[in-house]
Amino acid sequence: MCFIIVPMYFDRRRGLANAVMMAGVCTGQIVGPPFVRLLQDVYTFKGATLILGALMLNALVGAAFFHPVEWHMRPACDGTGEWLSGGTSLTLPEVIVKKKEVIDTAWKGSCQSLCSARGVEAPPVDAKVREGIEAPPVEATALSLPSLNKTGITTALQNGSQMTSVDHEEGKQRTGLGELALRVAHNILSDLRIFRSPRAVIISLGCTFFINGYYNFIMMVPFAMLRAGHTLEDAAWCISVSAGCNLLCRILMSALSDSPRFNMRAAYMAGLAATAAAIFTFPLLTELRWLMVTMAVWGCGVGTTMGLYNLVMVTIMGLDNLAPVFGASCLAVGVGFLFLGPLIGVVRDATGSYTVSMWVLAAAVLTSFILWLFMPAAQAYDQRRAAHQAQHEGFLNT
What we know:
The chain is mainly alpha-helical. Helix content is 75%, strand content 2%.
């Protein structure tokens, strides 16, 4: 969920915030295995499990700070008659529109659970809720969300509570696990409509081949090196080098994405190409130093791609479509694990060669790279379809 939530909090510094998150993810992957080994040696399996569970429970505190972004929007007047929001100037009519949007959001949120239980659509905001919004504020000093709560939002919640206080309790009693499952299934099907866009299809399939490819490869590395006559210590050094390069490139690419001159799609595709090339080359080498160099290139490729993993979704699909396309991609990746993982095992058993298996994985990552070559065509197609749909709706309205 952090891949979805964090980008929604930032605009200008979204890449830097994503880099901080990626640093935590990679640091956990580097520090986690030796730390778990130490806990098991000192406290046995049971004690290590309890300590890890206690550490994970602290994440609940951090998750509690994930508020809706609208709670922290604070437009204010700069004394010249212009209203400011997030560093940009807003005219008074624009502020009025924003106030209406916030009130609409609050009203829908207050009635969402009841209306979902009854299977009906949330009613529109009552006219009384917006009473007084059309006129300028008396004191044009600061317009914050707490002030909105005291005017429109509080009225909306009171009206909603007076209208549905008894019905809300009855609705809560009738809400069961079956109805919850139906709502979840409905939301999933609604999000899967994103597949109607060829951009979403390319992103999802690309993620499927890439993630399945690099995960299966890293699990094969120790066995392939043992077969080639190397030790487990050598394999551990190779994986550690790849993890360090992975961490460095995740942070670097995420931070660079804030630059207007940074071509995110080109960097993402470069990471795919580097990953595929490293996987293809690895089984052909025998010397440890060259194996470590190849794993460093592999780590840089994976770090580049994963560092831009969610940011490129925002760039291609827009922030509003981040959650649906991310969920659709995760579903595709999960289905890919069910099929590609056993397929690689079958190839390994049939050929008796890690080289052939790794080449299949390299082909999977290369497939992701080829899919992204068609992204400009997919973007142009969606733009033409949107323009045609807008033209059609305009014709019907006239």
